[in-house]
Hints:
By secondary structure, this protein is of the alpha/beta class. The chain has a single domain (2-234), classed as Rossmann fold. The chain contains seven helices and ten strands. The chain has helices spanning 9-26, 41-52, 80-87, 109-123, 159-165, 184-188, 203-211, and strands at 2-6, 31-34, 62-65, 67-69, 99-100, 128-131, 153-156, 178-181, 192-197, 229-234. The strands form two sheets. A seven-stranded parallel sheet has the order 1-10-9-6-2-3-5, covered by helices on one side. The chain has a three-stranded antiparallel sheet with strand order 4-8-7. The two termini are 13 Å apart. Bound molecules: 2-phosphoglycolic acid. 2-phosphoglycolic acid (PGA) is lined by residues 37-39, 132-134, 138.
Amino acid sequence: MDIRIFNNTEEIAQAASEIILNKVKSSPDAILGLATGASPVATYKKIIAAYNAGEVSFKNVKTFNLDEYCSIPASDRNSYYTFMHENLFNHIDIEEENVHVPNGNPENAEEYCASYDEAIKNAGGIDIQVLGIGRNGHIGFNEPSDAFTAGTYKVKLTDSTIEANKIYFDREEEVPREAITMGVESIINAKEIILIAEGTAKAQAIHDMIKGEISPACPASILQKHDNVHIFIDKAAASLI
Ligand code: PGA
């Protein structure tokens, strides 16, 4: 694991965006796996700045997002579809047809999830996957459990995840209880992974991911097995390692 401890958000974003931008410059048809949440926002800002400076084009890039809430439409202000457009896609020259955010409300979830994994495979697999980590060690919406998950599937969110997501919604009843998420196996199939985390609330999860045993009780611990993973964290998130 390439573990780097930075002083602030800006430094993390600089390092993470550099890897992504270098990939897109050298492979203009790169496949990016993207994440929502607070952790990657500064990185996306750096990517937009590089695009605005004329350094890079996303015309031929394809993206696949990790997850999407069920029970709200893509057009909802809290959907991950909306989040990605507001924080990245609307500000770069990516083609909408190359953007993939899971459909949170598929008619047949099983068939839909299989088709999402198939689309990733047909595109050639993910070159770089961006990840955050939950306070409970989740990646995507793969919550702690008895077994590592495989491909994309529909998941029930845990109370701690619902609690963490509450800040984005006006009323607690509005927070979705289920999501469509890439499975652990879909995530670790990526050729390169960048996980970003900041703050003391993530310190235990970071500790368990790096120093704990590889166990589905901390889904992120699977990253110990991956041979090209960058862990970019601040001092607070690194405080227990
Ligand atoms: P965050 O979420 O980036 O908003 O902290 C990360 C996650 O829960 O995976």
